[in-house]
Amino acid sequence: MPRSRRSSTSRRRACATRSAGSRARPRNRRGNPVSGAFESAFSAAALRRGAPWLRGTGPDSDVVVSSRVRLARNLAGLPFVRKAGREQRDRILSLVRERAMSAGVARCAATGGGGQTERMLWLDIHRCPALERTLLVERHLISKEHAKQGGGGATAATPGQPAPKEAAEAATEAAAASASAGGEPRAVAITLPDEQLSIMVNEEDHLRIQVLRSGMDLDSALDLTDSVDDALEGAGEPAHGADGPGLEYAYSARFGYLTACPTNVGTGLRVSVMLHLPALKLTGEMEKVKRATRDLSLAVRGYYGEGSDAAGDFYQISNQTTLGRTERAILDQFEHQIIPQVIQYERHARRVLVERRRRVIEDQVLRALGVLRHARLLTPEEALTLLSQVRLGIYTGLISNVPAQTVSQLMLLTQPAHLQRLLDREMDQNERREARADLVRQHLAGE
Amino acid sequence: MKCDKCASEATVHEVRIQGGKKVERHLCEKCAREEGFAVQSHVTVPELLGQLIAEQAAAAKSEIGVPTAPIDPTKIQCPTCGTTYGQFRHSGLLGCAVCYEAFEAPLSPLLQRAQEGGTHHTGKVPKRLGGQRAAPPAPAKAPAAASGLEERLRRLETLKKQLNAAVAAEQYEQAASLRDQIRRIESPAQESKG
Ligand SMILES: [Zn+2]
Ligand SMILES: [Zn+2]
Question: How far is A203 from chain B (nearest CA, A)?
Answer without folding.
Answer: 13
